[in-house]
């Protein structure tokens, strides 16, 4: 139904980057990517969740603000953008003051992003692939690189570099990249692409890959990223002059896997 959204979980969430917590997390069900290694596959592919009306979504946003969230963290929002846009407008009319975070896979249509201009304060996209063959193989989509690159340029145009007040992000762009095993050149080209846009952009370089869901069907990614592989990508990050952002430590992978069959998936 056009007047509902499907939400797997919402609540106070401390699993985002340090400048974004405690976040008011709203995890939407469904995704237009079909990543074989998705750690949130229960909601992205299996559609675990419950339907909520737009007015209920507004109430959730306002409640999260009352609980002390520093932002409204919309996780995988893209397929629900029309309902979310309406909810943001209504919530702001009812007094919502904290920033809106658009936490997405990066594979966004420019037309949707332009619809969200002025409503989204912080864009938090993944930039998964520079290699379109990998994108098609592991996520079932075509032209990922060009579409995501264009989307991130648009996000940057809208909100610019990250702005911080009292150690909390208030506006701007953070780009995440998950390093995949056996795909180091893919990671390096992603970083090169972001650097050409602006190497002052905040980068979250993630070392949390763990072979989940259907990764077992692909031998080259059916293992964690090695320390050598990750350090190789990290060295590239430094070579490109990035100084803003976060680099995830090793051996943190399994601690970050949620279970959306629980009342609190992150407990």
Automatic annotation (TrEMBL):
<keyword id="KW-0408">Iron</keyword>
<dbReference type="Pfam" id="PF04055">
    <property type="entry name" value="Radical_SAM"/>
</dbReference>
<feature type="binding site">
    <location>
        <position position="35"/>
    </location>
    <ligand>
        <name>[4Fe-4S] cluster</name>
    </ligand>
</feature>
<dbReference type="GO" id="GO:0051536">
    <property type="term" value="F:iron-sulfur cluster binding"/>
</dbReference>
<feature type="binding site">
    <location>
        <position position="38"/>
    </location>
    <ligand>
        <name>[4Fe-4S] cluster</name>
    </ligand>
</feature>
<dbReference type="InterPro" id="IPR013785">
    <property type="entry name" value="Aldolase_TIM"/>
</dbReference>
<keyword id="KW-0411">Iron-sulfur</keyword>
<dbReference type="InterPro" id="IPR058240">
    <property type="entry name" value="rSAM_sf"/>
</dbReference>
<dbReference type="GO" id="GO:0003824">
    <property type="term" value="F:catalytic activity"/>
</dbReference>
<feature type="domain" description="Radical SAM core">
    <location>
        <begin position="27"/>
        <end position="149"/>
    </location>
</feature>
<dbReference type="InterPro" id="IPR007197">
    <property type="entry name" value="rSAM"/>
</dbReference>
<feature type="binding site">
    <location>
        <position position="31"/>
    </location>
    <ligand>
        <name>[4Fe-4S] cluster</name>
    </ligand>
</feature>
<protein>
    <submittedName>
        <fullName>Radical SAM domain protein</fullName>
    </submittedName>
</protein>
<dbReference type="InterPro" id="IPR016431">
    <property type="entry name" value="Pyrv-formate_lyase-activ_prd"/>
</dbReference>
<keyword id="KW-0949">S-adenosyl-L-methionine</keyword>
<dbReference type="GO" id="GO:0046872">
    <property type="term" value="F:metal ion binding"/>
</dbReference>
<keyword id="KW-0479">Metal-binding</keyword>
<dbReference type="InterPro" id="IPR040085">
    <property type="entry name" value="MJ0674-like"/>
</dbReference>
């Amino acid at each position: 139904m056009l007047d509902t959204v499907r939400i797997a979980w919402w609540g106070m969430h401390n699993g985002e980057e340090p400048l974004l917590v405690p976040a008011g997390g709203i995890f939407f069900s469904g995704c237009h990517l079909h990543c074989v290694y998705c750690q949130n596959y229960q909601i992205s592919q299996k559609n675990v969740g419950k339907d909520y009306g737009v007015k209920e979504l507004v109430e959730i946003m306002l409640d999260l603000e009352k609980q002390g969230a520093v932002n409204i963290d919309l996780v995988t929002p893209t397929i629900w953008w029309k309902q979310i846009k309406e909810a943001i407008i209504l919530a702001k009319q009812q007094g919502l003051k904290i920033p809106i975070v658009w936490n997405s896979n990066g594979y966004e249509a420019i037309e949707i992003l332009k619809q969200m201009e002025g409503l989204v304060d912080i864009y938090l996209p993944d930039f998964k692939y520079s290699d379109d063959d990998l994108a098609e193989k592991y996520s079932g989509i075509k032209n990922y690189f060009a579409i995501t690159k264009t989307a991130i340029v648009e996000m940057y145009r809208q909100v610019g570099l990250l702005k911080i007040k009292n150690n909390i992000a208030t506006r701007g762009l953070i780009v995440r990249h998950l390093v995949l095993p056996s795909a180091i050149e893919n990671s390096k080209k992603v970083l090169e692409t972001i650097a050409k846009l602006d190497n002052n952009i905040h980068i979250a370089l993630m070392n949390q890959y763990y072979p989940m869901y259907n990764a077992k069907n692909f031998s080259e990614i059916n293992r964690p990223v090695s320390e050598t592989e990750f350090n190789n990508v990290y060295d590239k990050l430094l070579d490109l002059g990035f100084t803003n952002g976060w680099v995830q430590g090793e051996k943190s992978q399994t601690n970050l896997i949620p279970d959306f069959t629980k009342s609190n998936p992150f407990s």
